[in-house]
Amino acid sequence: MRSVRAITILVFLSTLVLSVIASGLAEQTATLTTDTFDVFHNLESKEFVQRGEIRVLQNETALYQSISAKDTPELLDASEQILNADHYYTVLLRSKNSGAQYVLAVKRCRLSGEKKVEETFVLHETKGGSVFRVDYDAGKGSNCLKGSLADVPTFVSKALVKRRVQGPTPQLAVAASIDASTGKEKQPEPQKGFLAKYWYYLVPLALLLLLGGEEPQQEGNARR
């Protein structure tokens, strides 16, 4: 009796430990980083200065993290990709895994008069999890009517991940059948019922059953 109770307790403890380990592994897997993008911008200079990074996670989410002012800004030689800083605010993303770069820009006036500028990064992924396009939006279009430019606004950043999915398969329409004699579209024939479709199978089968059932009775009467 004691051995059965001990085995039951052991099985319960083993199941509890395995569930805890499985949940820990699942949580760790969900937060693994698939790629990290360094974020640069040219708000105050003619060179791209790093201001943060975006971590893309396996659970199809992304996190933006800004670097502190104490950190040494990382400069990138991308003079050919810089737009006129007086008219455009330009952001550049560089992948740490592949080195791929994405240049994003909005009109500089969208940041006008804003102490906190809301911005959104949308990273589009393939089914395999690699980023193939990045969309960007910052500020408000109505700010272009103000005229004054904010010197160093604070950015409130949001990063989203969108996984590419297979779209619905289109249903192709059947070409209309035209009656040559009337020039009008032929109407589809009405669907036939079960008996109308298979009567030529059912009639012979019914005759065989009827005739085959009468013969044994006739033989019995003859013997009497």
Automatic annotation (TrEMBL):
Location within or outside the cell: Endoplasmic reticulum membrane
TM segment ranges: none
Signal peptide residue numbers: 1-22
Membrane topology: Single-pass type I membrane protein
Gene Ontology CC: endoplasmic reticulum membrane
Keywords annotated in UniProt: Endoplasmic reticulum, Membrane, Signal, Transmembrane, Transmembrane helix
Superkingdom field: Eukaryota
Family: Belongs to the EMC10 family.
Stated name of the protein: ER membrane protein complex subunit 10
